[in-house]
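Example 3.2
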Amino acid sequence: MTQTFTHGYALLIGVTENAVARWALPDVAQDIAALAEVLAHPDRCGYPAGQVRVLTGPAATRPGILDGLAWLGERLVADTSGEATALLYYSGHGWRDDAGQSPVYYLIPSDVQESALRSRSLRAEDFAAAVGELRPRRLLVVLDCCHAAGLGIKALAPAGGLVSAALPSALFTAGEPALAACGKGLDGLAALAQGAGRAMLSSSQGHQPSYIRRDRRMSIFTYHLIEALTGHAQPAAGAAEVLVSDVMSHVWRRVPASARRDWDADQQPDFRVSGNFPVALLLGGKGLTTGTPPPDPLTGAGLAPVPAPAPTVIHTGGGAYIGGNVTIGSGKFVGRDDITIIGDGNVVGDHSRATVNRRR
């Protein structure tokens, strides 16, 4: 029987737009939409719909992000069960300022101005302090903050003396010894390590970029995060809940392999965790039956498929370049210089599996 993860609360922040157009991260919108749907779906994670809040687009401003954290704090205070679980997911640019004696880290909200980077950005210390004021019994913080420039990567060109960087865990923790660390990208996550369970997960380490899937359906990291939340992490037989250990171990194993396969690049998630605790229901609390494969993270049963992005069109001045495959069926594709492609087939990359004729 389908259950509800009654005391689960989630805040999903995606800085998808930016006042500086070239800093926008439109691909993040797909991550947020897919994760929100999986969390709130009764046959997946089972969070009550009213307990999952999404901040994207123009709402992901500096005050908007802090207001979202205040909303989450209010919900946790109102839950007097002593069983509250909070999931905080942030995807956006993380920058490091090396101009002073010690590095200063920033999150870049949607309304930041290039002429006032430091004054209009959200200092990571302020963000961490607001997160540290949350007092659920269990807390999972997921950070996807390092977005470097390049094909297939959540892109941002460094500017104004700031460089792209993941947030160090020392900004979030106060040296809690109970936290077990993995890797070097989360050196010291601790003001958050107070309670029955605390876990911090980063999509990459140091300066490693955070890649999207080659098909651009969502990021590699979020795809494998959703896999873990939907039974792909090989939970114990009869399990009705997804444990934080399931999530950590699954993304740790899968993300590097996918980044290597898709982009021949390094991306290694990092995490720290204190204790082990449930973060969601497993398929509505029903779990996986023996011999039944877990659902597809992109098109799970009962979930709307994540829409494929539209083809990229680059106007060249003498015509248009269309990225991806062009299916012409039984018609004609007429390009520049009187080139006509006739017949059933696709134009793939720089060549065509079709008949190419030059019009006379």
